[in-house]
Amino acid sequence: MSSFEEAETEETVTCLHMTFYHPCQEEKMMFRCLNFCKREQVRADEVAKFGRDSNICHYNLMDTRVSRIQFSLQFYRKLNSSEYCLEIKNLSKRTKLTVNQTELGYLNKMDLPWKCTICFGDYQILAEIQEGESVDYFETHLHLAEAPILQERSLPSLQPIPEHGISSSIFLSRGKIPTEIDENE
User: Fold this and answer.
1) CA–CA separation, 84 vs 106, rounded Å?
2) Cα 53 from chain centre
3) Among 72, 77, 67, CA closest to 140
4) Is 54 contained in some domain?
5) At residue 118, what are phi and psi to the nearest 5 degrees?
6) Residue 71: helix, strand or coil by DSSP?
7) How many independent structural domains does the chain possess?
8) What's the CATH code of the domain at 132?
9) Per-residue DSSP letters for 103-169?
């Protein structure tokens, strides 16, 4: 037998890709303590914490508006399943955390969707989970976004637009009220 045949089966690792954005990131350098160069391993029995306090959090955000511990991520396996998941928990008493459109208050937690946007304050984080089989650890791979992850969407006009393309405000300013006319008249 060759050494190739005797080698252990390679195990794939769950990897959480996180892309960070803040509008003032170039001026304030709040991401300067994050490692954007390589993947990092987090043991399955550890909780990955994000926040301002470097004594407690492995992922530090250098901003006084960020809580000492902003949020945590925990790797787990669902009961009676082989599926591995990540759970996000808001640990900030002052700031609500939103995951997609779900708002999490202090100590609220939920399963992290496979692809989602995490927001608090002016921070936007795109999180994408790449599935794996490892039970001992998961990996994080951090990225820096140059543009906002969420784009501002302009709200549609609340004023109805008539079929003829003429705004009713023109008629109202002249003292006339538009009337509906049957096509056959």
Assistant:
1) 24
2) 21
3) 72
4) yes
5) -105, 125
6) strand
7) 1
8) 2.60.200.20
9) EE-TT-EEEPPSEEEEEETTEEEEEEEEP---SSEEEEEEEE-SS-SSPP-PPPPSS---TTS--HH
Q: Which domain holds residue 124?
A: 15-144
Q: Which residue bears the tokens 């391993």?
A: 41
d(CA 142, CA 130): 13
Tell me, yes or no, whether 128 lies in a domain.
Answer: yes
Sign for the pseudo-dihedral over CA of 145, 148, 150, 151: negative
The two structure tokens encoding residue 30: 């709040």
Domain presence at residue 95: yes
List, for residues 55-104, the tens digit of each pLDDT value.
999 999 999 999 999 999 999 988 887 788 999 999 999 999 999 999 99
List, in sequence order, every residue forming a beta bridge with 14; answer none if it has no partner. Answer: none
At 164, list the tokens: 């003829």
Q: Is residue 2 part of a domain?
A: no
From 135, 55, 129, select the one nearest 99 (Cα to Cα): 129
Neighbours of 120 (CB within 10 A): 22
User: Is the separation of the CB atoms in 73 and 100 below 8 Å?
Assistant: no
The pTM (predicted TM-score) of the whole model is: 0.75
What does the pLDDT look like over 119-155, one tens digit per residue? 999 999 999 999 988 889 999 999 999 999 987 544 4
